[in-house]
Design a protein that fits this description.
heterodimer; A: 279 residues; alpha/beta; 5-stranded parallel sheet; globular; B: 310 residues; 5-stranded mixed sheet; 41% helix; 21% strand
Chain lengths: 279, 310
């Protein structure tokens, strides 16, 4: 019986992830620019966080005890916006203003304009440091919130990420859980060809982190990994999530050119049909 | 005259501030003995974070602390913040207007023997160009303490430029500091020296020298580079007709540029910029370097004579 409920919950989350993916297609198509590939690859992780794992209250986005989510790979803004809107932080209709003049939905997330955005990101490599700062503040204040940070696999080529990795372990920030959206592609090609960060899991382990490796499109695995991470004491946790860039839209999957290209109207229509969603 | 380095005053002020305000935290990048944040560490070890030799992460971590309600003061040498960590200052701190303070010590060529790699000559230009920033360059120990206290009250990013070398104490303890308001250190009508930081003392010495020649010089102390007291600068232009700027910084992008921009737009008069002439520094004693790069009272007096003759 318990197993059935769990499966129902996962099915609901999978359906939500499908809706989020459809928003990503609609938004980037309407904007005529943006980053669908890396938004789609992390859609299951972000859905599991916003609709099951995070302790948040959309009516009170400044609640001091809320969990924080930081999209360090800020170019996946369409994904974050879709999740925030679906979760009730702002009206879903506003999603179609993405990247337009005067919109709160800036090309990269702006914490000052949009409720629910915890940190302004976009210049890669900076989100984990900010997360560490919030985690240190939690320890100083005796608060039990957690900080979740989503990093891109190309992003970890930034040296600052490793400064932050070292610091999180040094200060024993067990209230920091990071995800690596390990889709294997960056703008100029496969990460292993551009500048290999391998062996990825070993590097995080060597920096003093608890490391799990999962399938980043399996919502059950994502939830279990976070539940396991919560039990870790004295160490930050990295969840290396193997993903597929462009996941959910057949002609975008594993195609590097969809990193930063918006779908044209007919492509968007095809994508939405695959996602069982009408325009 | 008593001499105290502004970094010493900074270290003392942080302790005072830490006592008053439990939200104040201090971060350093393995230079706490030089920046004097070690004083804060001694009093409040639980609120002090050594981030190691990793300035980018220090500023990024400070952004997160500020986003969670803390008032972080970050310190290292000016060549490393804003120098090495400019993008973090710009994108993680200034763009979201987070409440982070950067107390950068060892600015300018008075660093001395360490040489050019450690002598920041362009930090004012960098931070001044960034939206949302407040930029302070205190002239002495008294001003530094008041700047630190004021910085904690400002909601947003603040840059405080500090020096390594001991400099004369110009103000009494009763000095009233108002952010963004220039201080007339000496009245005069023939010319104005508009100075900042350690150059305020040199400007006063130059004015004294010129008074013996019958030239009356106003000395304006710009402790706040941004927001700039344009009113005081325009008044100086109108009332004296000749301006010399003085800063221990490149003549490009710092106080001299800011004053020239203001005077050009509002009341054009001759402006001569005394500063480091678009070159890197080198090793030497602070006094020797000030002399070699044209930053002493003698050079200021010559620039004033030139400005008046025009």
């Amino acid at each position: 019986m318990e197993q059935t409920i769990e499966q129902e919950k996962i099915a609901r989350l999978e359906d939500k992830a499908r809706q989020i993916r459809a928003h990503i297609i609609k938004m980037t198509a309407a904007a005529g620019s943006g980053h669908p590939g890396g938004s789609l690859s992390a859609a299951d992780i972000v859905t599991a966080l916003y609709f099951h794992l995070l302790r948040i209250d959309p009516q009170n986005p400044a609640w001091p005890d809320r969990d924080r989510f930081i999209l360090s790979k800020g170019h996946a803004a369409p994904l974050l916006y879709a999740a925030l809107a679906e979760r009730g932080f702002f009206p879903v209709e506003e999603l179609l203003t993405l990247r337009k003049l005067g919109s709160r939905l800036q090309g990269h997330p702006d914490m000052k304009s949009l409720p629910g955005v915890e940190v302004s990101t976009g210049s890669l490599g900076q989100g984990l440091s900010a997360g560490n700062g919030m985690a240190l503040a939690a320890k100083l204040d005796g608060r039990d919130y957690r900080v979740f940070v989503l990093l891109g696999d190309g992003e970890i080529q930034e040296g600052m990420v490793w400064e932050a990795a070292m610091a999180a372990a040094h200060y024993r920030l067990d209230n920091v859980t990071a995800f690596l959206d390990y889709n294997g592609l960056q703008i100029d090609g496969p990460i292993t060809e551009v500048m290999s960060p391998e062996p990825v899991a070993d590097k995080w382990r060597a920096f003093g982190w608890d490391v799990q490796e999962i399938d980043g499109h399996d919502i059950g695995q994502i939830i279990k990994a976070v539940e396991a991470a919560r039990q870790v004491k004295g160490k930050p946790q990295m969840i290396v999530a193997k993903t597929c860039k462009g996941k959910g839209v057949s002609f975008m999957e594993n195609q590097v050119d969809w990193h930063g290209t918006a779908p044209k109207p007919e492509q968007a229509e095809k994508a939405l049909a695959e996602l069982r969603c009408e325009r | 005259m008593q001499k105290i380095a502004t970094r010493e005053a900074y270290g003392e002020a942080l302790v005072e501030l830490g006592r008053e305000n439990p939200d104040v935290v201090v971060l350093d990048a393995d230079l706490s003995k030089s920046t004097k944040t070690i004083n804060f560490k001694k009093h409040f070890p639980e609120r002090f974070f050594n981030m190691g030799i990793a300035e980018q992460n220090m500023l990024g971590t400070a952004a997160g602390l500020a986003a969670a309600g803390k008032i972080p003061f970050c310190s290292t040498f000016a060549v490393f913040a804003p120098g090495r960590s400019f993008d973090q200052l710009r994108n993680s701190i200034a763009y979201p207007k987070l409440n982070v303070k950067i107390g950068a010590s060892h600015a300018g060529i008075t660093v001395g023997e360490d040489g050019a790699t450690h002598q920041s000559v362009e930090d004012i230009a960098l931070v001044r160009a960034v939206p949302n920033m407040t930029v302070f360059v205190p002239a002495d120990a008294v001003e530094t303490k008041k700047v630190v206290m004021a910085a904690a009250e400002i909601k947003g990013p603040v840059y405080i430029r500090l020096g390594r070398a001991a400099v004369p104490v110009l103000h009494g303890e009763d000095f009233v500091f108002e952010p963004g308001k220039a201080v007339i250190m000496r009245e005069g009508g023939d010319a104005a020296i508009i100075a900042t930081g350690v150059m305020v003392a040199e400007a006063l010495a130059a004015a004294e020298e010129l008074s013996r020649e019958g030239i009356s010089v106003r000395v304006l102390n710009i402790h706040t580079i941004k927001p700039l007291d344009t009113e005081a600068i325009i008044s100086a232009a109108k009332e004296t007709g000749a301006i010399v700027t003085a800063e221990e910084h490149s003549v490009i992008g710092g106080l001299g540029s800011a004053v020239a921009e203001t005077v050009c737009e509002h009341y054009p008069v001759p402006v001569y910029r005394v500063g480091i002439p678009d070159v890197f520094g080198e090793s030497g004693k602070p006094g020797e370097l000030m002399e070699k790069y044209g930053l002493t009272a003698r050079h200021l007096a010559a620039a004033v004579r030139k400005a008046i003759r025009r």
